[in-house]
Every structure is written in C-alpha cells, then in structure tokens.
Design brief:
It is a single-pass type II membrane protein. The chain is of the alpha/beta class. 31% of the residues lie in helices and 12% in strands. The chain contains 14 helices and twelve strands.
Length: 408
C-alpha cells in the first residue's frame, strides 16, 4: 500500500515536471488573456466554434433576420450596457465637443487660410457656425481671407519667425511619424496629445463615390484587399493571409485579379458615372461591399494611428480584419472588427474567419453595433475627425487671440 502511494506521487511529480518543461520551451503556447479569440462562454461564439453543420450564406439581410430572431438588439445592448450607461473613458481621444470653455474664447470670428498644396479636401472651404457663437472661415483663397488669423501648412513648412501681429502658424501632419515642423504655434495630428486632434474617421474624403452597397456577399472569395504601397512587412503579412484565405487583391501589391482597375469588371454596377473615366477611389466602397471581410493593414503599428483603411471597410458594410494600432478599440464600435493581432497565429485567424463566414448569426453580430446604435467610442472618433476640424482649430486660434497672440 505504501509502495503504491510512493509510485503515484512519483508519477504525478514527473508529469508536473514535464508540463513545466513544455511551457518553458514554448512548445505549449496559449493566446494571451485579453485575446480576441472567441470565448466558449459566449453563447454566440460557442455555436460558432462547436457547430458541426456550417451554414454558408450570401444574403446579408437574411443573416440579419436570423440574428434578430436568435439574439437581438436587447441582448446586444445588455452585453455592452456599461458603454451605454457610463460611456467610454478612454484617453485616446480629445473632447471634440467642448475642450475649450466659451469664456476662454478671445475672438468671435476667426479666419484660417490654407497655404500651398495639401491633402485637405477643397470641399472643406466654408464659413462655419461653431460653438459659443464663434464663426469660422476656412479657405484656400487669399481674397476671402486677406487678413487671416492663422495660416495652415501641411506639405510646406511654416515660416521660421512670427512677429507680433502676424497670423498664427498651424502645421498639420497626419502621417504615422507625427513630425512637428518646429516652427508652428499649433500642431494638428491624429494623437490626443497633439494641440488639435484629427482622426481619419470623417466623411469629407468620401466625395464623388458610388455608395451603392451590395447585400449579396461573395461566398467563395471571402476577403477584399487593395494596396499599392508595397511595404515589405505588410506584403509579407498579406501574402501569408492570402495563402490561407480566398482573397481578391486589387492593388499593385500581390495583385491576383489580372491587373489594376479590375474591380469594375467584377462589379460593373459600381461604376459611378459611365461618362467619366473611373478613378480607383470612386468605386471603392461599392466593391468592398461584395465581400464579407476586408483586410486592413496599416503602414505601421503605431499607437492611435487608425486610418481610412479601417474606416472605409466599416463604411462599406464589410467586417475588417485589422492589423495596426494597439489601441484600436479606443476608436471603434464594440465588436465591429476582427483584431488579427490577438490571435496566436495566422492559421488560427484564418480558421476563425472561415468558420465565421459560414455562420450567419455570428457574422451578423459584427454589424450589430450599427443596427442597434451601440457606438462606444466611435461617436467621439467621428467628432474628432476632419469633418469638425475647422471649428475646433478656430476655437484654438480664438483662445490664443489670433494675430494678437504674443510672438514667442
């Protein structure tokens, strides 16, 4: 009897040691605790991960109807009740609706003259009615703003010196590096720590596009991807994903559809104007909408650098497969994307995407935020975009007293 007890203890000790060795060598590896890999405790994903009968589907309306009957907005809102009751308290976004108190404004009218060529769309030129009775003229015309209170530079550097009585110098850089010119009085970029934040989530870049979206999703080719800036690291990641998931790649990088500008041959209904030569962007959303998933890989994985690559996919009615900013959830609706970085391997990600594509209820869950009005931080992200930049910049200029600001 004593010998049996000793043997049992010895076996247990050896098994424990073996497990420790396997973990220490990395042979056994599990996703991190905050992994986005679906939890079996979630009833929706439990059916996804355990289902023995895949249910391929094409009709998104049909998927919505099935989700409504099995889950519904009431349950989705309850799941995200904290967001609805308390809101999000993330520090990745500035308060776009009152960061400056009305009493702090020094001027009732501000004019901003945009200098040189910029990425700023022409349709932003306007006379805006802002908070606290402030009016804001944003223009590229020196005729309309002959004595501007601020000069906005983007692709050119502001003057080195600013004398008393000169306009304030504003510099904007929305690229990942966020490099200040060193000469500006106000700096605009995508981060909350900048003087004025501008996210990529606005609608001003969406002009002149065909917004006809398809409810009929491809069942054979699951993923849309288009990139024409072939960065080695991004290409390597995309190539791996393309090898595991059926994908149409429409850009210059890893093109597999027979050349550029092929989207309209696949989807002629996406032509914006048959009398005009098509441009790559005018049918972007329409083409994306035919796919269940859009691959969105940022140029660089940088905090708060969440670009149009993600927001275009959301606007098209597809589910983004995202690789980018580590704090991306601070900017988007709950349960709206597949965060590729949270999977333990690309193979695991691909397996999940394939299963999701054959589960209409689980797939429809990724659209519930829009249908049920559960936006999370997304409302704040839109509020801090280029759409509202003129008023927010004019408030900053007014607080500093424009031309009357003391030169440093």
């Amino acid at each position: 009897m004593q010998l049996k007890t000793i043997n049992t203890f010895a076996v247990t000790l050896m098994l424990t040691a073996a497990v420790i060795i396997l973990f220490s060598t990395g042979f056994l590896e599990f996703p991190a605790a905050d992994s986005a890999v679906p939890s079996p405790k979630d009833s929706i994903f439990y059916s996804l991960s355990k289902s023995d009968s895949p249910e391929p589907f094409r009709d998104l309306f049909g998927a919505f109807k099935k989700w409504d009957s099995e889950v519904g907005c009431a349950q989705f809102r309850e799941t995200h009740r904290d967001l609805l009751v308390n809101g999000s308290k993330m520090s990745s976004l500035q308060n776009a609706e009152g960061g400056i108190e009305c009493g702090e404004l020094q001027m009732k009218h501000v004019s901003v003259l945009v200098k040189g060529w910029t990425w700023v769309p022409d349709n932003m030129d306007n006379l805006y009615s802002c908070r606290c009775g402030l009016s804001c003229l944003w223009t590229k015309s020196s005729l309309l703003a002959d004595k501007p209170d601020a000069l906005l530079f983007e692709t050119t550097t502001p003057p080195i010196l600013r004398r008393d009585g000169d306009p304030l110098r504003v510099y904007m850089d929305l690229e990942a590096g966020r490099k200040r010119s060193g000469n500006e009085d106000i700096f605009i970029s995508y981060h909350a720590r900048d003087n004025v934040q501008s996210t990529y989530a606005g609608a001003v870049f969406h002009n002149n596009r065909n917004y006809q979206l398809s409810s009929d999703k491809n069942n054979d080719t699951l993923v849309y991807w288009s990139s024409s800036r072939c960065l080695p690291q991004r290409n390597q990641l995309a190539k791996k994903i393309l090898s595991l998931l059926p994908t149409h790649s429409f850009g210059k990088c890893l093109n597999n559809v027979g050349g550029l500008d092929q989207a309209l041959s696949f989807y002629p209904e996406c032509v914006k104007d048959p009398n005009e030569k098509p441009k790559w962007w005018d049918h972007l959303h329409c083409a994306m909408s035919h796919y269940k998933f859009v691959l969105a890989i940022e140029n660089t994985m940088t905090e708060s650098y969440v670009t149009e690559k993600l927001f275009y996919a959301l606007d098209s009615g597809a589910v983004p497969i995202y690789f980018g900013a580590p704090n991306v959830w601070d900017f988007i609706p709950p349960h709206s994307i597949i965060d590729g970085t949270q999977f333990s391997s690309i193979e695991q990600l691909a397996s999940y995407v394939k299963s999701l594509a054959n589960d209409p209820v689980a797939y429809a869950e990724y659209h519930a935020w829009r249908r049920c009005g559960v936006l999370g931080n997304y409302g704040k992200t839109r509020a801090a975009s280029l759409d509202t930049l003129p008023c927010r910049l004019c408030e900053q200029v007014s607080e500093m007293n424009g031309r009357d600001a003391k030169a440093l």
